[in-house]
Specification:
single chain, binds siroheme, alpha+beta, 18 helices, binds iron/sulfur cluster, globular
Length: 582
Amino acid sequence: MNIERGTVTSPSKFTPVEKIKAESNYLRGSIAEELANPSDAFAKDTVHLLKHHGMYQQDDRDNRVSKSSDGAKTAKAYSLLIRVKIPGGRLTADQFVAQLHLADEVGNTTLRITDRQDIQFHGVLKRNLREAIQRINHVELTTLGACGDVERNVMCCPAPLRSDAVRDRLQEVAERISLHFLPRTRAYHEIWLGDPDTGERQQVTAAPETIEPLYGRNYLPRKFKTAIALADDNCVDVYANDLGLVAIVRDGQVAGFNVLVGGGMGVTPSNKNTFPALAKPLAFVGADDVLPLATALIEVFRDFGDRTDRKRARLKYLIADWGMDRFRAKVEEYYGRPLEAPKPAPIRAYHDHLGWNEQGDGLWFYGLNVENGRVLDRPGWTLKSALREICTKLRPGIRLTPQQNILFTDLPADYRSGLEEILCRHGVRLTEEISLARRHSMACVAFPTCPLAVAESERVLPALIDQLEAELSRLGLEDEKFTTRMTGCPNGCARPYNADIGLVGKTAGKYTIYLGGRLLGDRLAVIYKDLVPLEEIVPTLVPVLVAFKSGRAEGETLGDFCHRLGREGLKAAAAEMLMTPS
Ligand code: SRM
Ligand code: SF4
C-alpha cells in the first residue's frame, strides 16, 4: 500500500468503520440530532463514533428476550456504558464522590473500577447521557478518548511513594502523553458541553491537519494503549500494551525509558492469524524525547496499521507482519533519527500496593482490595457507602490501580484507625483479611452488560475463588502468591494470557484454562485444557496444585512450575496425582 505520510485514503477494501469515521466531520456524525430525538437507542453507525466520546451502547442481556409469548420480537433494554479516562488513576476525593453520586443518580447505582485505572458507569439511559457527561466534566474529568480508535487511558504506577521524585515524574509523563494524544476535534465540547465553537466553522476550514493534526479524518486503525512501569514494579502490566515505557532510574531521577512495543491480549478464535502478544523491546529514549518517539510510533501505526480487518488492526500484528527490524527502520524514519538500543533493565518485581504503606513524606496510603473493581452496596456489605464516608470525612487522595483496586493516599498516621473503623462498620473486609488468591484475582465485566461475552466472569469469579481458597487451605498452599484472571470471552480484558491461571470464556458456561504466566507479566501462559465447564474448573486445577506442592523446586511459584513442566508434563503430573490415594 502506497501511503503518503499523514494522509489516509479510504479505498474500498477498508472496513465500514473507516468510512464512518472519515465521513463523520471529526466525530460528529448525527450524534447531536439523535440525542434530540426520543428514541432510546442510537443508530448503528453512530455507535461507532460514540466510542470516541467515551461511551458504548449496550443492552441488559439478562432482560434480552428474543421472542415474547405471542412470538413477536421484543425490544432490547438499551443503555450506555460511560468510561471516564483517568491517567494514572489519580483523582481527588471530591471527584470520586461526584462519580458515586452520578452512579446513583443516572447509572445503575454501581460503579466499576477498570483494570486501566478508569471508572465506568453502566446502565445510563440515552436521555440522561448529556447530563452525565456534563457532570463528569464539571468536576474536571473527561470521557473523551476513553474508548475508540485513539490513544486510550495512559497507565502508570499509582503508589504515592515520595522517598524520591520517580513516581511523581511518571504520573507527570502519563498526564503529558494523555493530553498530547487527546483528539483535538471540538465535537465533544459542542455536543455534550454546549461549546459555542460550532462544527460548521471547523468543517469550512476543513484541512485535517488543523483539526486533527495527528489523527486526521480516519483516526487510528484501532485502539492504542500505553503504560509506564518501573523495572522493580510492573504493577501496570506493561507487556500487555501497544507501547510500554519502563523507566530507567539513575540517582533517584528518571533518566529515560526503555520502549517496548506490540503488546496486546485480544484473540479472535475464528481468525487463526490473531494471538495474544507481549510487548518487545525496541529502544531506549531520554526522558525529554518520549513524546516525539511516542508520536512517531503512533504515526507509523496510523499510516500502516491494517484498516481492512479490525480483528488485525493492532500494532502487534503490524510488527508480526513486518518483523522488528523493518518496524524499527520505519519508526526511525518518522522519528527523524536513529534509535538507541534498550538498556539492560529486566522487569524484576510486581507490587499491588495494597494494605498500609508509608509514603516517605510522613504520610500513609492504604490500598483496599475491591473485588473485580465493582463498587456497590449490598445488605450487610456497604462498600459504596464506606468509600463515600472515607472520602467526605478523611478527604484522602484517590488512586485507582491497574488491578481494579483503590488507594487512599496522603493520610496522617492518626487517621489509620479511623479508616479501618469505617470499613469494618460497613462490613468491608480489610485487605489483610483477604486471601492472596482473591487479592491477586481479576475478572472482566462480561454479563450482563458486555455484548461480546459468551460466558460469565465478574459474577462467577467470587464463588470460584471461594472454592479455590478451600482447596488451597486444605493443601496448605494458602500462602502462595499467584494470579487468577477470568474473562467472559477471548478478548482478554482481564489480561488472562500472562496470568499464572487464566480462565477464558469459550462458550456458554465453558472455559479454556491457561497456565504458566506469572505476576511479573513477562510470560504468556499456555492452554492446559479447553472447554472446561465452570463447575469443573477448580476440580481440574486441584491435581495441578497437588503436583505443584509435591514437585515444585525451591522457591518456585505456581506459574513457574507450570511453565517448567509445560502442558504435557503438567497433564502427566496431574494424572499421576489423581491416581495417588490422598
Ligand atoms: Fe476490554 C472490548 C471492558 C480492558 C481487550 N472491553 C471491551 C468492551 C468495551 C466490549 C465492547 O467492545 O463492546 C467491554 C465493555 C464491557 C462492559 O460492559 O463494561 C470491555 N476492557 C473492559 C474493561 C472494563 C474490563 C475490566 O473489567 O476492567 C477494561 C476497561 C479498561 C479501560 O479503562 O480502558 C478493559 N480490554 C481491556 C484490556 C486490558 C488492558 O487494556 O490492559 C484488554 C487487553 C489488552 C488489549 O487491548 O489487547 C482489552 N476489550 C479488549 C478487546 C480485544 C481487542 C483486540 O485487540 O482484539 C475488545 C474487543 C474489541 O475491542 O473489539 C474489548
Ligand atoms: Fe467483554 Fe470479553 Fe472484554 Fe470480558 S473479555 S469484558 S466478555 S469483551
